[in-house]
Amino acid sequence: MNLSQSISTEASVYWQRVQRFTPDARRIIASQAISRLGFGLYQAIFNLYLLSLGYSTAFVAGLLSIGLYTMAVGALLAGPYTSRVGEKYSMILSGMICAIAAGMLIALPVPSILIMMIIVFYFGNSLQITSYSPLMARSSTAFERTYLFGTGQASRIATSFFGSLIGGFLPGLFALWLIVPIDSPITFQLTLIVWILACIIGIVPLLWLKEPKPFNTKLEDVQPEGSSAASTEPTGKVNIVIRFFICSLLVGLGAGLIVPLMNVFFWEFYNLPTYIVGTIIGLGQATMATGVLLSPILASRIGKIKSVVLTQSLSLPFILLLASVVNPVVAILSFLLRGALMNAAMPVGQTLRMELVPISWRPNLQALNSTAMSLGRATSVQFAGQFFDQGLYLIPFWLTLGFYGVQVVLYALFFWNAEEQRDIDLQEQNNTLTKA
């Protein structure tokens, strides 16, 4: 089979899986795409908005840390809450909370209100995070699930890309309109209104979701033909949960050192203008979208576990370049490729977390995963802010390289045979059901 035939076959398979997406899955994707448009703008602009008000980078990092600690604790509360009321209502409540908090953050940017509302905003995010993956898993079968997570994540990232681009250019347009400097707080405030609108509009598709089915304690999986197989409550799953927690904590520690302050890094270290920073952050979202779209194809060829280990391993050299080569072009290209490779593993990792545990465990596993990521980010972002204020911009990249490297090794050790073992377990379940 030549290259063109191979690409055509992969595209045909991909389209067949996409066609199997349920109406609810499509509504969830639409809701998240709209919400992430606003979040992309927030990522590109909010830190710069606070700096324009005279706050230090350490204060900005501290504020982010408070929010992430809130998400860590909030996820532990959100998991049981989601299990009780359902993912649909948790996601609707999340959108409402985030919209209110965003409005207050923009309208009243004094320290006490900023701290209070960042806590509210990140608690709202914890509800969304603990609900999204279980709801997507519930709205799909094993046949198309990896492709659904990949497509959903790609759409979220793609709209984040446009949000970042909008965030990069709108301050300049408002500056021309109001005849004020481009880095005036008012230009950022007006730009961030798009963030509020996206939070509100993103709720609308969720209103048409069907009522979720009650949780049960069975391990659910649907075969490609559409038949359902269930088993008794699996044993030994706690060990899997602990391993996911450790890996997520390490990723969070590494990500917190660089990801939340990348816009500040390009703005201060390389003295790039706002519209260039917004474009860079937006392009980062675009390359990530490409990575997550292609990840299901890679997973289908070499397996989910191996694809996660491979893509995350390939991201490490680009972190090394960011840490060691002081050149804006190299830094931008490394930032784009690092993000694409590291995040390409995200939909596959989400699918694995949902498939390796029973249905009833999914919200709480997602909550623990969010807690681990948030704890790691909240802890490390504080140090990143202090490093930045002292002019030590490259040290966080070296530390991230260490955390990510250890995580890749542990992920391989923890899960290398998990996928094969799961297939064996499912085959045994099917044999048992056939005999019965």
Structure notes:
With 436 residues, this protein is mainly alpha-helical. It has one domain (26-203, 235-425): Up-down Bundle (Growth Hormone, Chain: A), CATH 1.20.1250.20. 80% of the residues lie in helices and 1% in strands. It has 16 helices and two strands. Strands 1-2 form a two-stranded antiparallel ribbon. Strand 1 and strand 2 form a beta hairpin. Helix 4 packs antiparallel against helix 5 (111-138), helix 4 (87-107) runs antiparallel to helix 7 and helix 6 (145-178) crosses helix 13. The longest helix is centred in the middle third of the chain and has 34 residues, at 145-178. The chain starts with a helix and ends with a helix.
Shape: globular
- In N-to-C order, the SSE pattern is HHHHHHHEEHHHHHHHHH
Q: Which CATH class applies here?
A: Mainly Alpha
What name goes with the CATH superfamily? MFS general substrate transporter like domains
Annotated CATH architecture: Up-down Bundle
What is the CA-CA span between the terminal residues?
A: 43 Å
**Strand order across the largest sheet:** 1-2
In the predicted model, the low-confidence regions spanning at least 5 consecutive residues are: 214-235
Number of domains as seen in the coordinates:
1
Rg, nearest Å: 21 Å
Q: Level of helix content?
A: over 70%
Largest sheet: 2 strands, antiparallel
How much of the polypeptide forms β-strand, as a percent range?
Answer: under 5%
Number of strands: 2
Please count the helical segments: 16
The CATH topology is given as Growth Hormone, Chain: A
| Overall residue-averaged pLDDT value | 84
